[in-house]
Amino acid sequence: MDLLTIAEQSFVNENVANFPEFKAGDTITVAVRIREGDKVRLQDFRGVVIQISGATPLTRTFTVRKVSGGIGVERIFPFHSPAIDSITVNKVGKVRRARIFYLRKLSGKKARIREKTIASKQAKA
Length: 125
What we know:
Blueprint: H1 3-10, E1 27-36, E2 39-53, E3 61-68, E4 71-78, E5 84-91, H2 121-124
Antiparallel strand pairs: 1-2, 1-5, 2-3, 3-4
């Protein structure tokens, strides 16, 4: 077996199968394990997914953007990162692009993303 594949398999996160499906425009909460000294705690990073990139399943990453204190903060997460504990989808956004970098230039109410409404069968009847 190739040495590179052995190294990749050692860093594979088994929780990836449990992660929900999400795409660009969705608001998600990523629970990240933060290590401070000998203590480990969970910290939530909630923001909008602005892109998903990567050719192979082991190299796939997603970028999450949030505004904290009036300053935009972006964080790139590998899907197979052992630091990711869980991912929760809070809102499903309605966007027409796979990479919504235009969000970086917008602020305030202009930076909102419309939420996708799912019509139920009872409402149609």
